[in-house]
Design brief:
With 762 residues, the protein is α+β, with helices and mostly antiparallel strands. The protein is built from 15 helices and 17 strands. Strands 1-2-3-4-6-5 form a six-stranded antiparallel β-sheet. Strands 10-9-11-13-12 form a five-stranded antiparallel β-sheet, with helices on one face. It has a four-stranded antiparallel β-sheet with strand order 14-15-17-16, with no helix packed on it. A hairpin with a 6-residue loop joins strand 7 and strand 8.
Length: 762
């Protein structure tokens, strides 16, 4: 009958271990031996598998500590998909541990005797094994030796065994056989620490065997070559059904970080089984040959549990009828024990040789690993040096750009200072010219006053001369001597004394008064100096800025010379009848229109050109942050506004662009020119502005605000920081501002919809 191969107990096997009576030997290898036993007083009548150390003589303390650690780990697990520990005594003379006996074949025997499984059956086994790994990993146990030999398969589902000693930290490579290496993860084969991901890799190799009948590597019978392939992760997955690629292939990833968690595998397997009949029995999933072998194991277990066999191997008919011969004499060293000891010595010698070979291989691997690590360190140092060099070059470039910006700023400041100095010099020059013009005007007025005074003196002299001449003529007419030879006429009646002399003086006084009242010299001036329509003018009136040069008439007679007696063609300037040469009127000099002197603000507005950038912004209260434009480089951190248009036309502000980020700035200059600057905001990441974000979101994007300010221009506003400036996506594109998880953001279309700015709370 098929079933578990139970060997009879040998001479060196104990009859009992603790309260358990041994029936036969189940397995032996490595550092332990497993017996089939029946429970005693504490164990009951059920079957147990008793594991003990395989040692000659006294058990060493190292082996005892290892076994005690295995017992402690195994007792922490309580799962339907593992073998439960019933009892243990690691301090006994021969330490032992009793676990539930599972009457079921391992996966390795099932594949070897019954063939491969379909994909659905592989998924069913994978689900149970993954659930066992979830339980083990949940209590902090890494199996480290998941393979077909350590997975038993009753019809109720797979059971993972032998998970205690596999975790021992001092486990050497001597336990790695050809059957074990093929299911070992690459990091385990390289001697590195095992993790839960290592068990997932071994599970993937086991599932590959169930589906294909072979391990996932090329087989040539060479253990060392196979070990090298496992270390490098050189897989051979030919023959894997495509239905299982998504299940098995991720488990066999060389990088442990890319392998799935056992819980993920379990969830995926259950998802694959969704909609199928809800049964956990293997009769639903396994082929008949598999269920037949599993049933044979189960039947054997029932018979052994019911004590239907007194011995592991039933006696033959001849043995039941013949007389049992007497036993041979007891030898100190029976041949069987000697042969067994020889086999053990040979096995240990082979183990030592394998250990030496594997130790050498491990040493070579460590040397290669050290070389790789050194190469990686060298590469990292080279990369670090290159990065440092790039950073140094970038820092030098940044420093050069900063120096260039500073130089440009200095040049700009120097130009502005020179412009201010030129404007100041122009203003001073204009003031100087104005002062000189005023001085010249005062000098002209003084000269005109002096000339008028001299003319008046000359007129008075001429009047006096005329009066003297009149008196002389009057005297000559009254006192003339009689002509000789004539008869004297009878004189008229006597007049009052002094009468003739008084009449002459009266005539002279009348002439002087007439000249003073008439003032012919002032009449000539008044006719040419822009008098009023009534023919009157103020004497000595001068128009500001005019030159009162003397006028020369057509005859060439200078009006300043008419007072000289006997000069010119007209003789004396006046006579008794008031006739004589009249003074000509001088031509008035036109008054020049004063040129206003522009101030520094006018000059700053006049210097702005389209394309310039300005260090000005809306201060949040409807005013600009400066009284005059300050030009800066458009890449400077304090470039807040860009000039897109400059106009001197009336009403030019109505033609400036409108919308978010657009505004205009107008200045009426002293020269009468109204200059308008059409502006748009320069958006830079990190700048802040106030906005209304509760309810309807709105903001004046021309306002710049301190990101750390504790106040805002108006109630209800918040301070936002610009986090990005992007080209507007195509219409219909689903686009949002980049932001972290849970971060709130706002965005505005700007530049007439061509761009977008993103902002978050400052």
């Amino acid at each position: 009958m098929a079933g578990a191969r139970i060997q009879t107990l040998g001479g060196d096997d104990p009859a009992v271990l603790g309260p358990y009576r041994l029936i036969g030997r189940l397995a032996s290898g490595g550092m332990g031996r497993i017996y089939l036993a029946r429970g005693g007083e504490r164990g009951g009548r059920g079957l147990v598998a008793v594991k003990t150390l395989l040692a000659e003589g006294t058990v060493s303390e190292i082996d005892r500590r290892r076994f005690a650690r295995e017992v402690s780990l195994a007792q922490r697990v309580d799962s339907a998909y593992t073998a439960r520990v019933r009892d243990a005594d690691p301090d006994a003379e021969r330490p032992w541990m009793a676990i539930d006996y599972i009457a079921a074949p391992p996966l390795s025997e099932l594949v070897r005797n019954c063939g491969v499984l379909p994909a659905s059956a592989v998924r069913w086994i994978a689900a149970g094994t993954a659930e066992a790994l979830v339980t083990l990993h949940g209590v902090g146990i890494v199996h480290r030796d998941v393979k077909p030999q350590n997975v038993l398969l009753p019809l109720e589902g797979p059971r993972v065994i032998d998970f205690g000693i596999s975790h021992a930290s001092d486990l050497t490579l001597t336990g790695l056989t050809l059957g074990t290496i093929a299911f070992t993860s690459p990091e385990q084969a390289r001697g590195e620490a095992s993790t839960a991901a290592s068990d997932v890799y071994s599970l993937g190799a086991t599932l590959f065997l169930l589906a294909t009948g072979r391990p996932p590597y090329a087989a040539d019978g060479d253990t060392l070559r196979l070990l090298a392939r496992v270390q490098r992760g050189e897989l051979d997955l030919d023959g894997l059904p495509k239905e299982l690629v998504a299940t098995v292939r991720p488990c066999l990833a060389v990088d442990p970080a890319r392998r799935p968690e056992p819980a993920e595998l379990l969830a995926r397997f259950r998802e694959d089984q969704a909609g199928l009949p809800a049964t956990h029995s293997g009769t639903r999933w396994l082929p008949p040959r598999w269920t037949a072998l599993i049933g044979a194991y189960a039947t054997q277990g029932l018979e052994l549990a019911n004590d239907r066999h007194a011995h592991p191997v039933a006696p033959t008919v001849d043995q039941r009828t013949k007389v049992v011969p007497p036993p041979p004499p007891t030898l100190v060293y029976p041949p069987e024990r000697e042969a067994r000891a020889a086999r053990d010595r040979a096995r240990r010698e082979r183990a030592r040789q394998d250990l030496a070979v594997l130790a050498e291989l491990a040493e070579r691997q460590r040397a290669e690993q050290a070389e790789r690590e050194q190469a990686e360190r060298d590469q990292a140092e080279r990369v670090e040096r290159e990065r440092a060099e790039r950073e140094r070059v970038e820092a030098a470039r940044q420093e050069a750009r900063r120096t260039e910006r500073e130089r440009a700023e200095r040049e700009r400041a120097e130009r502005e200072r020179a412009e201010r100095e030129r404007a100041e010099a122009a203003r001073l020059e204009a003031e100087r010219v104005e002062r000189e013009r005023a001085a010249q005007e005062r000098a002209r007025r003084e000269r005109a006053a002096q000339e008028r005074a001299s003319r008046e003196r000359a007129e008075r002299q001429r009047a006096e001369q005329a009066a003297r001449a009149a008196r002389a003529r009057a005297a000559s007419s009254t006192t003339a001597s009689p002509t000789p030879g004539t008869t004297r006429a009878t004189p008229p009646p006597a007049a009052p004394s002094g009468g003739s002399s008084n009449w002459g003086w009266l005539v002279a006084v009348a002439v002087v008064v007439a000249l003073v009242v008439w003032q012919p010299w002032e009449a000539g001036k008044g006719s040419g100096s822009g008098a009023s329509s009534a023919g009157t003018t103020s004497a000595g009136a001068v128009t500001s800025g005019s030159d009162l040069d003397t006028h020369t008439d057509g005859s060439g007679t200078d009006s300043d010379n008419y007072g000289d007696s006997g000069s010119g063609s007209g003789g004396s300037s006046t006579d008794d009848s008031g006739s004589g040469t009249e003074e000509s009127s001088p031509t008035p000099t036109p008054t020049p229109t004063p040129t206003p002197t522009p101030d520094a603000t006018d000059l700053a507005f006049a210097a702005v050109r389209a394309g310039d950038c300005l260090d000005v912004y809306n201060d949040g209260h409807g005013n600009m942050s400066a009284t005059s434009p300050v030009r800066v480089g458009c890449r400077a951190s304090n470039a807040y506004m860009h000039v897109n248009r400059v106009s001197t036309a009336a009403g030019a502000s109505s033609s400036c662009d409108s919308g978010p980020g657009f505004t205009w700035w107008r200045k009426s200059g002293a020269d009468g020119v109204v200059r308008t600057l059409c502006l748009d905001r320069v958006y830079q990441v990190g700048q802040c502005f106030p906005a209304q974000v509760k309810g309807a979101t709105n903001a004046d994007l021309t306002v710049v605000w301190n990101c750390n300010a504790s106040t805002v221009p108006r109630a209800g506003q918040s301070i936002l920081r610009i986090t990005g400036y992007y080209k507007a996506p195509a219409p219909g594109t689903n686009w949002t501002c980049p932001a972290g998880r849970g971060e709130r953001f706002w965005y505005w279309p700007v530049n007439n919809g061509r761009s977008i700015i993103c902002a978050s709370g400052a």
